[in-house]
Amino acid sequence: MTRPGARAALAGASGLALLALAGAVAPVLAPAGPYAADLAARLGAPSDAHLFGQDTLGRDVLARVLYGARISLGVGVATVALSLTTGTLLGCVAGYAGGWVDEALARVIDVLLAFPGLLLAIALAAIRGPSLPNVVLALSVLGWTGYARLARAATLSFRRREFVEATVALGAHPARIVLRHLLPLAAPMLLVQATFGMAGAIVAEGSLSFLGVGAPPPLPSWGGMIDEGRPFLLVAPHLVLFPGVALALAVLALQLLGDGLRDLLDVGAEGPARSVIPP
Amino acid sequence: MRALAIRRLTLLLPTVIGVVTLVFAFLHLLPGDPVEIMLGEWAAPADVAGLRRELGLDRPLAAQYVRFLAHAARGDLGHSIAFRAPVGRVIAARYPATLELAAAALVLALAFAVPLGVLAAVRRGSALDRSARLASLVGVCLPSFWLGPLLMLWFSIRLGWLPVSGRGGLAHLALPAVTLALGMAGILVRLTRASLLAALGEDYVRTARAKGAPRWRAVGVHALRNALVPVVTVLGLQAGALLAGAVITETVFSWPGIGRLLVQAIQARDYPLVQGCVLAIGLSYVAVNTVADVLAGVIDPRLGEDGR
Predict the structure, then answer these.
(1) Is the C or the N end of chain A the one with fewer CB within 10 Å?
(2) Is B243 near chain A, with CB under 8 Å?
(3) pLDDT confidence bin for B73, thresholds 50/70/90
(4) Best mutation site among B33, B145, B159 for testing chain A: the one with the most A CBs within 10 Å?
């Protein structure tokens, strides 16, 4: 009998690997690249030469969807890396130090959580102008709170245990105690949170690009492609359809992976939130 | 319950000040010059200085903060550059449309998700349960900026059943509300199911059944009431997220609410209006969450007792 969650985790991981592979081999599958325009064939329907059709400038939609995987997954990984590192570091420091440091961090997190994440990201990206680094920054500004809460809770609950007291008695440096002894215990929770966080970041990047404050044109962001295709919905629905399917598949893969890992690692419903960035 | 309500209401003021401070901090402390974004890179230095003075951005940061807080407390959010009207008035004109959309989505999500979650839990492992879980997963995964245009294409353009966009009667509300509700419904189905399953395994449900309570009563009265506590809490968070999610849905369906106003303000580079919209949505989010917390206390009086 397979362990609970194994199937979902495997399905999610496979889907994610497939998307990453699609992004990696995009130059092979679509040698013309995502920017090669062909104005004579604007809004061309799907055909043998262009499986997903052509967009408003006659660019190959398949090529743009494939290259779009690089943007979506790239933003997802970068956002999670930045939020996870910041959040874990702050959470561990606060949980270990206790006292006013901990209290201050808890209040900051409360206020940040009292704010819809996507909204702040929109405002931030709008103020700083559309660019991918700005998207990552805008999403990470709120994204770190989930990881900080988990890391803080784990550090708080484990730091009074005997094995930690023993390490303290042996004269270990606090940094070593946190990194070698406390962090590994919080790792499963953080991993599950990171999976959902990446799904949230990918949807949020799509949303920002859709609103025109994310990836600037002509970058092939899935959200931006959906926005570009919207006015041509009746004559060329493929412009909206294919990037959306790709985006939904990416999110589905990450949700399955997160659900599966949660069951596999037995993190429990009290652990990570489903998504760092609210829809 | 009263203790919980009082505690939540005392927390409200610091949270509101925190949110106002947060908006101020993000818009003023982060690199990126709003005046440059508003006027463009090649604006005349005199114009830049003029606008900076008009927005109060030439003063020391602390003075700007105090002024911002004082004005916000009086409901004065500045003057919209694009609309040539007070920001507060522009927002107030659009606010009802967003409330209408968010309320419709909330009702729709609840009416659909809670019964489905209950049925899935009661018939655990059945085909219905599997379908409900699959449907909820799909609901969570479909981004609204994709689902909206597709619904519009099908129901408005191809079938011609519903209006394409704008605000009017119930027919105008249907597609935006469904689009906005779907993601939330997906989350609520999963949560209701999981929460009810946990409650059904509790001793008090077995006791109720042993004392002769019919199954519907044990589920509907005893288990469901406890199962709904986490649902209400998440509902609060999600209802707030609906207000933020409305930014996308309103843009897709040209719904004249505050979310679309925010996007218009961003496009018009109307900095005071962006700030006002963000603040208005943020404060609504805080208010909704407070109400949800108090409501959770009404459903489960134990929440108010031990400071949880």
Answers:
(1) N
(2) yes
(3) confident
(4) B145
pLDDT at A74: 94
User: Tokens 């655990």 correspond to what residue?
Assistant: B124
DSSP one-letter code for A179: I
Whether the CB of B290 is below 8 Å from some CB of chain A: the reply is: no
Of A18-27, B123-132, B281-290, which range is least confident? B281-290
Q: Give CA–CA dist B140/A248, Å, rounded.
A: 9
Q: B interface mutation test: which of A107, A109, A122 has the most B CBs within 10 A?
A: A122
pLDDT at A20 (0 to 100): 94
Please say whether the beta carbons of A184 and A153 come within 8 A: no
**Which residues in chain B have their CB less than 8 angstroms from residue A223's CB?**
143, 145
Give the separation between CA B163 and CA B174, rounded to whole angstroms.
9
pLDDT single digits (tens) B215-263: 787 777 778 888 887 787 778 777 777 887 888 999 999 999 999 998 8
Question: What ipTM does this complex have?
Answer: 0.83
Residue in chain B nearest A114 by alpha carbon = B286
pLDDT the model gives residue A272: 46
Low-confidence ranges of chain A (pLDDT < 70): 1-2, 268-279
Q: Does A114 touch chain B (CB under 8 A)?
A: yes
Q: Which of A132-136, B261-265, B277-281, B297-301 has the lowest mean pLDDT?
A: B297-301
Q: Do the Cβ atoms of A11 and A256 come closer than 8 Å?
A: yes
pLDDT score for A278:
37
- Scanning every residue of chain A, which has its alpha carbon at the shortest distance from the alpha carbon of B238? A278
Give residue for tokens 């990037």.
Answer: A243
SS3 A28: helix
* pLDDT exceeds 80 at position B7: no
Tell me, yes or no, if B204 comes closer than 8 A to chain A by beta carbon: no
Give the pLDDT of residue A274. Answer: 43
Q: Please answer whether residues B299 and A127 qualify as being in contact, where contact means their C-beta atoms are separated by less than 8 angstroms.
A: no
Among B30, B240, B267, select the one facing A128 at the smallest CB separation.
B30
Looking at the complex, does the CB of residue B149 fall below 8 Å from at least one CB of chain A? yes
With CB atoms and an 8 Å threshold, state whether A126 touches B144: no
List, for residues A7-31, the tens digit of each pLDDT value.
889 999 999 999 999 999 989 988 8
Strand partners, B79: B86
Distance from C-alpha of A103 to C-alpha of B218, rounded to nearest angstrom: 42
Task: Report pTM.
Answer: 0.85
Backbone angles phi, psi at B80, to 5 degrees: -75, 130
Inter-chain CB proximity B140 and A274 less than 8 Å: yes
Q: Which residue in B has a C-alpha nearest to residue A120's C-alpha?
A: B278
